[in-house]
Amino acid sequence: MQVRQISVFMENRAGRLQEITSILAKANINLRALSLADTSDFGILRLIVDRPDDAVKILRTEGFTIRENTVIACAIADHPGGLNSILNVLTKEGISIEYMYGFLGKHKDEAVMIIRVENTETAIETLLEGGFTLLKGEHIYSM
Amino acid sequence: MKYLVEYIDPDLLQRVQLERLRQVAKRLYDNVPYYRGAFDGIGVKPQDIQSLQDMEGLPLTDKETLRSNYPFGMFAVPMKNVKEIHASSGTTGKPTVVAYTDNDIKVWSEVMARSIYAVGGTDDDVIQNAYGYGLFTGGLGVHYGSLDLGATVVPMSSGGSKRQLQLMHDFQTTILTCTPSYAIYLAEIAQAEGYDPKSSSLRIGLHGAEPWSDAMRVQIEDAWNIKAYDIYGLSEIIGPGVAVECVGQDGLHVWADHFLPEVIDPKTGKAVSEGEDGMLVFTTLTKEATPFLRYATKDIVSMTTGKCPHCGRIMPRISRIKGRTDDMLIIRGINVFPSQIESVLLKIEETEPHYLLVVTREGALDKLEVQVEVNEKFFSDEIRQLEALKKRIKSEIDSVLAISADVKLVEPKTIARSEGKAKRVIDKRNI
Predict the structure, then answer these.
(1) With respect to CATH, is domain A70-141 assigned 3.30.70.260?
(2) B254 touches B138 (CB < 8 A)
(3) Average pLDDT taken over every residue of chain B
(4) How many CB atoms lie within 10 A of CB B26?
(5) Do A44 and B414 touch (CB under 8 A)?
(6) Domain ranges in chain A?
(7) Residues 6 or more apart in contact with residue B24 via CB below 8 angstroms
C-alpha cells in the first residue's frame, strides 16, 4: 500500500526544474505526480514516477541530492467534500499530515491524494478501516 | 616632539634594538623551556646573537606555538609578577594567552599614547573609545594609552550606536577610536537619526582591528569631516599600539624600540628587500611576561625604512595589510578561520560537508554567507526539517564565532573543487 516517492533538492534558480525534467525525459521516465515546495533560496521537488529505481539511479549520477521515502496514495471521490472525508478520519486518530498533493485519476469521478505522514503504517490502517481505497505503488506507476 | 626616541639617530636605534634583543633572547632561554628547546635544537645560544642580521637564523613563533603551550607555558615570569591576562577566542582549539607585568602595561600605555599623539591627539582631547573592553586587547589598550597621554577617555566599549552618538554630542568628544567599518556605520546611524555627523565635535578617527582601504578613509573623513588614521596591533605582540600612521597617512610607523619588525618570504624565511611584500614578523624587545621571538603575524605587508618625509620620525613604516598568508578572514573586527565553520558543520552533520564562505560588504558592514552543500545524509523531503537544519547551523556559527552569518543550502557540486585544497572563501569586499 506504500508508494515510493523521490525528493530532489534544488536551488531556486531559473531553468533548474527544466533541467531535471529534461534528464527524466531523456531517460524515458514518465511522471505520475509531482509537487514542488519552495522557500526563498531552495526548493524540494517531490516526484512519483513510473520507474523509481531508474529515476533514482539517473538523478544520482547527475549529481542531485535525492531522498526516497514512502507516501500513501488514497483514492477519493472527485466531488465536494471528498478530501474532507479523508482528513476527518485522520484527524480523529490524531495523525498529522506533513504535506499532501493530489491529481485527477484516469476515471472520470476519481481523484488521487498523495499523503505524507510521519507514521505511514498507522495512517494506512486508519484509512483502510475508514473504508478508503488505497492504491498500490505498482498501480500508480503504471497508471 | 614629545617622544624623542622616535627621532633618534637610526644607528643608535639599531644599537638599542640589538642590546634589547640579546636581553630578551637570554630571558627566553633561561625562563621558557619551549624557547630553550628551540635554541638548543638549532645549536644556538642567546649570546651568539651578534647583530640584528643574526635574527634570520632564529626560529619563528606562531599561534600554534602558543596553543600547544596553553595556558601558561610561554610565560617568562612567575604568576606573582603577572598583573593582567588577555586571551583570544579559543574556537579552533585552545585560546592564545598573553600576559602583562606592571612594566608591560607601562610599555603598552606608552606605545598607545605615542600612537594617539602621532595622529595629533593631546591631553586636551576627549577620547570616545568604542573598541570592545574585555579579553580583547582593543578596548583596554586604547584606554591605557589615553590615560598615559593625559587625555580624557570615555570607555564606551562597542555597540549601542544611539548612545554612542548621544554621548558624543553631550560630552563633545574629539577623538573616536573604533573599527573603520563601525565609524562608517555610526555616521549612517547619525544621518538616519537626523543628526549631521559633519557637525559633530570629532576631529580625529583612529581605526584598526580590521583591514580597510583608502576609499574607506575618504568615506569616513567625508562623513564626519575628520582625519582618519590606521592603527595596527595584535594581542600577541602587545595589543593595539604596535604601529600607527602619522599625519602623512603614508604607511604605519612601527614603534621599533619595543617591537622589532622583519618582513620575510614566508616560504624561505629570508628577509625580502625593502619595499617588497612579505610576511610581517615581530620580536618583542621589552615584553616581560610573554615575550615572543620572531612572531609570525601571517599579515602581508611591505616595509620602508629611513626618515619619514612627512613627520621626520625614523621609525620604519609598514604598508597597510595587503593580505594574509593563511586563510584567516577578518569580519567586523573578528578573526574567522574557515576551519571554525568546518568544525561546526562537522559537529552537526558528523560528516565533512562542502562549504563556502562568501564575504561581502553591504554599506559599511561586512556580511558573511555560509553556503553548505546539501548531501543525502541530511536531506529531507520536508521543508521544515531543512529550515531547522539551517537555523541550527546559523545558531552554532553565531555562538562559536560571535558573528551572525546567513546560511544558504546549495546543491551538491555547486562549490568548486580543486586539486588538493578546496577553495573555501570568496571575499568580495573591495578593501
Answers:
(1) yes
(2) no
(3) 91
(4) 14
(5) no
(6) 2-68, 70-141
(7) B283, B284, B285, B286, B287, B291, B293
User: Which CATH fold topology does B331-427 show?
Assistant: GMP Synthetase; Chain A, domain 3 (3.30.300)
Does the predicted interface ipTM exceed a cut of 0.90?
A: no
At residue B93, the pLDDT reads: 61
Give the residue from A23, A42, A46, A120 with the most B CB atoms within 10 Å of its CB, the best one to mutate: A42
Q: Which cell goes with B391? A: 537555523
Cα distances (angstroms) measured from residue B137 to each of B209, B218, B234, B356 = 10, 27, 8, 30
Mean pLDDT over B46-74 rounds to 93
Bond before B240 cis per omega within 30 degrees: no
Handedness of CA B193, B196, B200, B205 (dihedral sign): positive
Q: What are phi and psi of A61, to 5 degrees?
A: -60, -35
The verdict on A98 touching B (C-beta cutoff 8 Å) is yes
Name residues 107-126 of chain A within 8 A of B (Cβ).
116
How many CA atoms, within 13 angstroms, populate the side-chain half-sphere of residue B44? 18
The model's confidence at residue B119, banded by pLDDT at 50, 70 and 90, is very high
Predicted local distance difference test score (pLDDT) of residue B353? 67
Q: Shortest Cα distance from B319 to chain A (angstroms)? A: 41
Interchain CB contact of A10 with B (< 8 Å): yes
Extract the residue ranges of chain A whose pLDDT is less than 70.
Answer: 107-108
Q: In sequence order, which residues have a C-beta less than 8 Å from that of residue B14 and are 6 or more positions away?
A: B52
Residues of B whose CB is below 8 A from A40: none
CA distance B416 to chain A (A): 14
B48-56 CB contacts, 8 Å cutoff, 24+ apart: B49/B18, B49/B21, B49/B22, B49/B25, B51/B18, B52/B14, B52/B17, B52/B18, B52/B21, B52/B260, B55/B21, B55/B260, B55/B262, B55/B283, B55/B294, B56/B264, B56/B269, B56/B270, B56/B271
Q: What is the DSSP string of B103-150?
A: HHHHHHHHHHHHHHHHTT--TT-EEEE-SPPSSSHHHHHHHHHHHHHT
CATH number belonging to the domain at A2-68, selected among 3.30.2130.10, 3.30.390.30, 3.30.70.20, 3.60.60.20: 3.30.2130.10
Q: B1-325 in CATH: which number?
A: 3.40.50.12780
Q: How do residues B410-429 score in pLDDT, each as one tens digit?
A: 887 777 655 444 567 888 88
Q: Which residue ranges make up each domain of chain B?
A: 1-325, 331-427
Contact of A72 with A115, CB cutoff 8 Å: yes
CA closest to B376 among chain A residues: A65
A5 touches chain B (CB under 8 A): yes
Distance, in Å, from the CA atom of A5 to the CA atom of B150, rounded to the nearest integer, reads 74
Beta bridge mates, A35: A46
Alpha helices by DSSP H, listed for A2-51, are: 16-26
Q: Answer whether A2-68 and A70-141 agree in fold.
A: no
Average pLDDT over residues B54-69: 92
**B354 with B170: CB under 8 angstroms?**
no
